[in-house]
Amino acid sequence: MPGPGPHLMYAMGTGLALTTLSNGRFSPHHTLFYTINAFFGPDIGSFSEWLDSILGFGFGSKLADLIHHPFYYVLFPGLPLCLLYSWVSRVLLQRRLLDSFSRVPLTRKQCWFLVSAGSFSHFFLDHLFEENGHSKMYTWILSTGWWKGRAPVNPDAVVVVGLLCIVLIGGFIYINSFGMQG
């Protein structure tokens, strides 16, 4: 399974292509919520497993199996997320942080479709690069790791990848809000 970088770049590239092909009807709002779900969405389960390996609650593996699934992610966290995304879309429009073709916030149904599309996009890349994490080259290039027992964590890599992703999403928001005003 690829790391967060390929998921983020693939989703943002797809969102940009859809924005171009639809003459802006697939807006930065669509791209943002699609990207968040393709990038981070289903891996919330893997994060919960890693967190459980540190805190020892004992439910991380079960939660990871439930969430890191193409259909279960859409149903369980996807339904509450579509409510959250619809509200965030309204706030982003009111504060003029993102531009939209129609100047109308995304509906819950649209957000649910974006959650679904992001989930399927995430698993498309996961299965495209699947080698079950056993190849040294695969582990080195994609930095996914494969472990038995407690997950090894390189805090430096987590910080660097996190900062790069924040800069990429922040730049996207800047270009699609402040960049369009000038």
Keywords:
globular; 182 residues; mainly alpha; 10 helices
Overview of the molecule:
- By secondary structure, this protein is mainly α.
- It has one domain (4-181).
- It is built from 10 helices and no strands.
- It has helices spanning 4-21, 28-39, 44-55, 60-67, 72-75, 78-94, 108-128, 136-142, 155-175, 178-181.
- Helix 2 (28-39) packs across helix 7 (108-128).
- The model has no long low-confidence stretch (mean pLDDT 77).
Provide a short characterization of the protein structure.
With 182 residues, the protein is an all-alpha fold. The protein has ten helices and no strands. The chain has one domain (4-181).
Write the layout of secondary structure elements.
Elements: H1 4-21, H2 28-39, H3 44-55, H4 60-67, H5 72-75, H6 78-94, H7 108-128, H8 136-142, H9 155-175, H10 178-181
Roughly what is the average pLDDT, rounded to an integer?
77
Instruction: Give the radius of gyration.
Output: 17 Å
Structural class: mainly alpha
**Beta fraction:** under 5%
Q: Domains counted in the coordinates: how many?
A: 1
Major pleated sheet: none
In DSSP terms (H or I, runs of 4 or more residues), the helix count works out at: 10
Helix content: 55-70%
Contiguous runs where pLDDT drops below 50 for at least 5 residues: none
Overall 3D shape: globular
- The count of β-strands is 0
For the record, give the distance between the C-alpha atoms at the N and C termini, rounded to a whole number: 40 Å
Order of helices and strands: HHHHHHHHHH
